[in-house]
């Protein structure tokens, strides 16, 4: 039996080291990132390593158990309190580029936002290239439905579910005042992610940004301190300054965030995710509920 269409049947990693610099969306701080290729004998999955003054502050593998609630991003926190925030775009890009083993080294707390999309990450990863490792690529096969919901029957209802499927599929619905109902349906593959999802940017209404930043300072919590027009699709009224990059850009960015948050599970899924008004919190709840139900999934590998 072969791997799902569009995916490799062997694990992969970067062909060489990748380096990127930028600023954090929420902290506004400058950060240097180095992504080191993994090895067949090294740890599975993606490992984050925080460094400071040449020393290692903490090192931990991506795991939803390390996730801590934060506004407008996904953050992981090690047992000693060392954090890495806004990991979702990078995790989505590594998963979609089939980089199954790597170590992400940062000299600050937040992964750089770059242009607000996953496109710069894809460009850098493709420039480095991918090499295959000897091990079989792993998928998480969904065996039975799992569902979560908030506000059922109200105007603000949010719901998410995952059910068995032969491929990684998504159906995401969202709405935004002035833009109507938005939807993306499709099979998630490296090709579809690159062509339809990766270019979509983080977005927000300008009238909300300044109060959010001020509230963050009052609470001692970094929120949008690094937000710029260069890294955000800024909404004024019923339009986007400079226009949209792709049709229905807002719902496609929800898909991007969902792919990154579900990547905390440690592998691509063989299942169909349906989402109504997803958020980082809801995404986390879904992946946590799936993994907690050990009868709802299994590891799957495919021969070449």
Automatic annotation (TrEMBL):
Per UniProt, what is the name of the gene that codes for the protein in this document? Answer: lpxC
Question: Which metal ions or organic cofactors does this protein require, according to UniProt?
Answer: Zn(2+)
- Keyword Metal-binding carried by entry: yes
Its EC number(s): 3.5.1.108
Q: Which Pfam families match?
A: LpxC
Where do the annotations place Zn(2+) binding? 89, 253, 257
One GO cellular-component annotation of the UniProt record comes to: membrane
The UniProt family comment states: Belongs to the LpxC family.
What keywords were assigned to this record? Hydrolase, Lipid A biosynthesis, Lipid biosynthesis, Lipid metabolism, Metal-binding, Zinc
Q: What does this protein do?
A: Catalyzes the hydrolysis of UDP-3-O-myristoyl-N-acetylglucosamine to form UDP-3-O-myristoylglucosamine and acetate, the committed step in lipid A biosynthesis.
* Descriptive protein name: UDP-3-O-acyl-N-acetylglucosamine deacetylase
Q: Name one GO molecular function term.
A: UDP-3-O-acyl-N-acetylglucosamine deacetylase activity
Q: What is the lineage of its organism?
A: Bacteria, Pseudomonadati, Pseudomonadota, Betaproteobacteria, Burkholderiales
Q: NCBIfam families in the record, alphabetically?
A: PRK13187.1 (NF009666)
Pathway of action: Glycolipid biosynthesis; lipid IV(A) biosynthesis; lipid IV(A) from (3R)-3-hydroxytetradecanoyl-[acyl-carrier-protein] and UDP-N-acetyl-alpha-D-glucosamine: step 2/6
List the GO biological process terms.
lipid A biosynthetic process
